[in-house]
Recover the amino acids of this structure.
């Protein structure tokens, strides 16, 4: 039996039973494929460890923010990772590309969030490769719901909650229509579409009102901004969040550490370069010396 | 039957003849490299024939659609699980073909009481540098052949030889662009198609040189009856997945 080098899983799906020459049909479901390959993902907590009926606060120290702009969605996240009051890392990536037209911005437990992003990425790819078509927008949203809901036990423990923003571009949108879409999730996996903007993480409370103000009364409406205007707006918002929230980092001029900024448009996901961010930061903070 | 070697060999020979007869009319597949990656090209009728296996691996095959589907899923599932358990970098074509596919092909071929796979498969792997690009062909009996610059599959060995000769003669510019590669691929396909249309005994003996008019005729007929299918693994593609199918417009534009 060929275990393809995995000592823990000597039963390889490839050669499980060559005599039968049969490949199970997983109908594009990656989690089903993993179960079949003796690699279930379920996180089992010891019994009795789940809190019940108590108020649960989900740690989500970060700020991520997404705005629907002229060409799609622009999404930014700070780079700080904290443990309690300690800053443990200042180059964390919290805006993760999932496929060519979707991005997940995470707040919450990094270990679970990164794993959810990884499962999501592999699930979309597996569906496309096995079923020969892209998973639909609704299919993608439900897949993420399922992963967040499956993680409920960890969320209730207060150690593994994840509250993401999921931004994608709907390729079925008409050419003259903006197909950028932003979805916000709660800890139980329910998803809601935010038409103009979404923000999550501990710093989000400081900027939600500003976003609302900009969206409603701003000189240029958020959805009419071009990429540069929208990026500068996001940089300013993260700057405000970092001013009031200790778990959100600002721009580190000395270390040249910028927030992560990505755009999701009809042509795909693009990361805004450090050169652009350097130039735009100069515009974003005219009173930086003060 | 294995106690009687002669009968076993005879049965294997019959099986080989049967499979080659079935494969002969199959639309050949051409794999060539170009300056930005690798290309698999064929002309299909209704059924898609070029597939994405993993981030840097693509597959095409000729044969029975049910066998192609079954073995395509075998290799896709294996790569997907392994890519998740470890990392994408830990998947490589050599292991997929030699440890997963080839044993399955060989076992089916030699279990003469069971059903055989009517299939020939061609896989392409985009390397981290162009020198590491690799094409791997697997015959229905499990024999694996690897080549770094080009590879073909056709119904019989003679068809493949004719196509390979054409490609070898045309290998003037390894740094060709996508358009040139597409044209060269299509010409090679036409050579294979012409050879597969001939009687078996003619394939071996006759000259395989086609003039431009003959070639254009074959290509025009093929385009009327089917559609050109081209899958590429592009090093410049943003993100981990490097595979994409060219659109009909891109193919049209390249052939103008």
């Amino acid at each position: 039996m060929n275990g393809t080098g995995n000592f823990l899983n000597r039963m390889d799906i490839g050669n499980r039973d060559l005599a039968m020459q049969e490949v199970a049909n997983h109908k594009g479901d990656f989690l089903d494929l993993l179960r079949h390959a003796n690699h279930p993902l379920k996180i089992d907590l010891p019994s009795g460890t789940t809190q019940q009926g108590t108020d649960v606060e989900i740690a989500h120290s970060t700020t991520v923010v997404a705005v629907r702009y002229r060409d799609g969605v622009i999404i930014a996240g700070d780079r700080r990772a904290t443990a309690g009051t300690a800053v443990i890392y200042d180059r964390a990536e919290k805006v993760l590309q999932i496929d060519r037209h979707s991005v997940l911005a995470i707040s919450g437990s990094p270990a679970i969030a990164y794993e959810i992003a990884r499962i999501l990425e592999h699930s979309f790819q597996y569906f496309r490769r096995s079923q020969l078509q892209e998973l639909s927008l609704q299919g993608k949203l439900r897949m993420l719901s399922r992963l967040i809901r499956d993680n409920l036990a960890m969320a209730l423990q207060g150690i593994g909650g994840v509250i993401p923003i999921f931004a994608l571009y709907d390729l079925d949108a008409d050419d003259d229509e903006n197909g950028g879409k932003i979805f916000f999730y709660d800890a139980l996996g329910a998803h809601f579409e935010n038409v103009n903007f979404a923000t999550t993480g501990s710093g989000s409370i400081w900027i939600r009102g500003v976003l609302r103000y900009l969206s409603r009364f701003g000189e240029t409406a958020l959805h009419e901004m071009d990429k540069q205007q929208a990026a500068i707006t996001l940089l300013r918002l993260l700057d405000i969040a970092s001013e009031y929230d200790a778990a959100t980092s600002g721009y580190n001029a000395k270390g040249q550490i910028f927030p992560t900024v990505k755009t999701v448009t009809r042509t795909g996901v693009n990361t805004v370069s450090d050169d652009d961010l350097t130039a735009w930061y100069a515009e974003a903070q005219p009173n930086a010396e003060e | 039957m294995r106690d009687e070697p002669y009968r076993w060999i005879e049965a294997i020979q019959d099986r080989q003849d049967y499979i080659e007869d079935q494969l002969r009319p199959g639309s050949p597949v051409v794999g060539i490299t170009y300056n930005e990656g690798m290309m698999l090209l064929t002309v299909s009728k209704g059924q898609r024939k070029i597939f994405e296996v993993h981030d840097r691996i693509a597959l095409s095959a000729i044969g029975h659609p049910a066998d192609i589907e079954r073995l395509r899923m075998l290799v896709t599932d294996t790569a997907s699980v392994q890519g998740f358990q470890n990392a994408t970098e830990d998947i490589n074509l050599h292991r997929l073909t030699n440890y997963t596919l080839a044993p399955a092909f060989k076992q089916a071929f030699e279990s003469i009481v069971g059903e055989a796979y009517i299939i020939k498969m061609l896989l392409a792997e985009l390397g981290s540098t162009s020198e590491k690009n690799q094409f791997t062909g697997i015959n229905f009996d499990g024999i694996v052949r690897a080549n770094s610059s080009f590879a073909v599959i056709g119904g019989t060995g003679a068809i493949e030889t004719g196509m390979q000769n054409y490609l070898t003669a045309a290998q003037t510019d390894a740094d060709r662009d996508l358009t040139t590669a597409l044209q060269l691929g299509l010409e090679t396909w036409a050579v294979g198609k012409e050879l597969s249309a001939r009687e078996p005994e003619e394939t071996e003996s006759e000259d395989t040189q086609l003039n431009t008019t003959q070639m254009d005729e074959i290509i025009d007929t093929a385009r009327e009856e089917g559609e050109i299918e081209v899958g590429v693994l592009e090093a410049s593609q943003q993100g981990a997945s490097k595979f994409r199918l060219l659109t009909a417009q891109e193919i049209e534009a390249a052939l103008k």
